[in-house]
Fold:
Amino acid sequence: MTVEAKFYRDTWAEINLDHISYNVSETLRLLPENTKLFAVVKANAYGHGDVQVAKAAVEAGAQGLAVAFLDEALSVKRAGLSVPLLVLGASSPQAAKMAADRQISLTVFQKDWLLEAEKHLEEGQLLRVHIKCDTGMGRLGVKTPEELNELAAFIHRSPKFFLEGVFTHFATADDLSTDYFEEQYGLFASMVDSLEEKPPFTHCANSAATLRFGKTHLNAVRLGISMYGLSPSEEIKQELPFPLKQSFSLRTRIVHVKKLKKGEKISYGATYETSEEEWIATLPIGYADGWLRKLQGQIVLAGGKRVPIVGRVCMDQCMIRLPEEMPVGTEVTLIGKQGEEEITMDDIARKMETINYEVPCIITARVPRIYKRNGEIVEIVNPLSE
Ligand code: PMH
Structure:
């Protein structure tokens, strides 16, 4: 497959699907045999590409998928994947019919919602639902065993709903301190205990809980960030049961190189001034690609060397200072490995004063995604060419 057929710009993200497969299969080895792994592919698989990641995860043994809202679920369904698919966020009651049609499971937590959704479901239609319990995240869910049982009873009575699951979400499973996690886990256990009839799935574990606390595996886990090869937090890196492999790399090529005299200025605001004769190169990536202005000063890899971004990051371009002349066309790695050197997602997150989750999510759709297996390109996605 040739890159030229799909895009002309010298900036792209590379997604290593072998690393997704590896992270999934290593995680499966930690799980009891009857525990299913749901791959969390919301937000376009954290910016990696929903369908490509979903397929790789399922091939590697994931038995379910999870997304944030129905439109995302439909996007994944269109690719023909037939494993259980759960919408984790709130849906409108009007969405119930479409979800039932496509055998997509929805998250529920209000009786009024069920009453309304029931009206939108046709005779003979069956909507699979998971009840969300709010055990301390404070986002969505029922808060007491009484509310849980009331909803469960309503669902059991209705011919239009099937109670497929009960779940909760942890706020601090990636903290070294486990007190709050234990509180949430205990509350969830007692809520599930209070149900007379248990649904097929009870689940609570995100990546951090899956990797750290075996007791949270129950009969399903929801794996997001660690499937992409990223640690849920800096502090639990030491506790990870296997080395994660980062899937996402970001690359570009030098489009212009020049030698500047001492005292010349670079970019908007003229904030950078050369302190001697300097080689300055221009890269075709900027804040409209999600390569944000906070990244002024960030180190990138050019010709296997660590070099800094100088001056302000523009909308479509930024400049780097080279230790010596390098030719136009030289590949530059912004995130990922080049030779012996590596810039990790965590390095970029630190510089942007955020978490690794946010970084691939904000690399915008105008950056083409190239998918690789065994070092070979297997697919290229570029919304601009479609
Ligand atoms: N389950 C739910 C309900 C989630 O919201 C998320 C991630 C996951 C599982 C996967 O978590 P992991 O990526 O830590 O494995 N949700 C979010 C979020 O709302 N903001 O950041 C991550």
User: Anything to note?
Assistant: The mean pLDDT is 97. The two ends are 16 Å apart (CA to CA). The domain at 31-227 is CATH 3.20.20.10 (TIM Barrel). The first strand starts at residue 11 and ends at 16.
